[in-house]
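The instructor's notes for this session suggest beginning with a concrete chain rather than abstract definitions. Hand out the sequence below and ask the class to guess, before any prediction is shown, which regions might be ordered.
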Amino acid sequence: MKPAILIPIFFLLFAIPVRAEVTQEQIDEVGKELACLCGDCPRRPLDECICGYALQQKDRIKKMLASGQTSQAIVDAYISEFGLEILSKPPAKGFNLVAWIMPPLVLLLGFFGVRSVLRTWSKTKSPATPASQPARDDPYLDRLESDLKERE
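After discussion, reveal the predicted structure:
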């Protein structure tokens, strides 16, 4: 054979893509983005869930990665099939932004509420000592006190 024919054959052999083995880390990377929708799990991410539904979805993700799809393409395919409920974390835009803003906001409001109550409590006057109490204008109390002193 002539070297002119061997050179294109040589380049064609190296141009054939070699499929790398899909690792568990790659599957888990995609699984972190997606939630388990089996109904029995409390919407755990697919990388943590071990139910039958999650295992099926992990196998599906593995096949999609092996076919050459990117992680984002797989997540987008799941979103188009199941909607935004498939995401383990709501996207931080639109109405879903409330899910990201409310927890810190409630904590701040609670902190300032407790702080104001504690300040109010600390500003209230403590009960006066008996020596500093003003004289009473009630004759019944005066007589009661005098009777009690006589008994002592």
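Then share the key points. The mean pLDDT is 80. The domain at 24-88 is CATH 1.10.8.640 (Helicase, Ruva Protein; domain 3).
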